[in-house]
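Take a specimen:
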Amino acid sequence: MNKLRPIVLVMILVATCLLVSTPANAFGPSVLFAPSGDCNRPYCTTYAKSVQTNSGRILASFEDNNQPAQGQTLPIFSSTNNGQSWTKIAAVADTSPRRWGSNWTNPYLYVLPQAIGGMPAGTVLLAGIASPPDRSGTAIELYRSNDDGFTWTWVSEVAVGGGEWGSANPTPIWEPYLLVANNKLIVYYSDERDKANHDQKIVHQTSTDGVHWGPVVEDVAMADRALRPGMPVVTRMANGQYLMVFEMVGQADTPNNYKISSNPESWNASDGGTTIDHGGSPFVITLPNGRLAYNSHGSTDIRINTNNGAGAWTPVRTTMPRGYSRMLQYVRGTGRVLILSVEGCRTGRRSCSGRTTAGTTSTGT
């Protein structure tokens, strides 16, 4: 997590053309979510994430501080028309044995492409950060849904960290990202528990059943302990190799870097990668045509790479504003990509407009 940059507050979902360098002609937006009343944190809504289930339904979740910290839940919104309209179908409460009482932040949604343990292919997973209401601890908790996101069951606890900054033990963990590879479920995340050596590093843990988790493995851990690599996102490219993008807080303008590995469990942790752009909070996906689509907080553009990470990352203009933790979601059957973005302003009470909206346009993929 980047503790240096303000987090913006409005979420917008729009798709953009990925084949030509002309502005996208998005239609919409339609409202997904609009906060009302006070928020329990200056960042009222942030970390919007989505997934498309095997039925074609699109699910979205986000950190929603427009509710009391005690009993806070991760909302689940659903769209059955490719993002044009949305309905809240669930609120995932902290039902883990820890019972801290707040499913707080950093939701990540994922559909299993194969069976993992007792969970069949097509199971929808939700990883997120649970915390006590005073944010004195953090834990990555994993939930599952077998009915397209309407009901959720706790599966396991991946890892436990200390509290957020300002707490008595500020050694939190953040930003889980899920991937299945090597017949394992991998959870990558940002880790602040090794303060003697690294202010923050990127690590992962693996499981063959989603319940029992292996040891912590370093993926990006810099010799300069003041650097804070974080917000990992990993995609399998068309050539079978894996590409990880991450931000490098602590360097000028917050570079967004990438590195490539043939094994998603081995990343040469001392390698800080190659810079794509600046501004933090990168995200990348592999499109069906093999191209990589990438964006970050630093620009309104999407960048396209046509050579499995090598060579140029070509900017493509969009009508979208910049956004913190801006998500890209390819929509099967339409050839469209949704951008989920959180943009707006900071305030200690209400988030300016705080609306979550949606719109789409063809990508031509």
Notes: Confidence is low (pLDDT under 50) at residues 3-28, 344-365. The CA atoms of residues 303 and 315 lie 4 Å apart. The first strand starts at residue 10 and ends at 15.
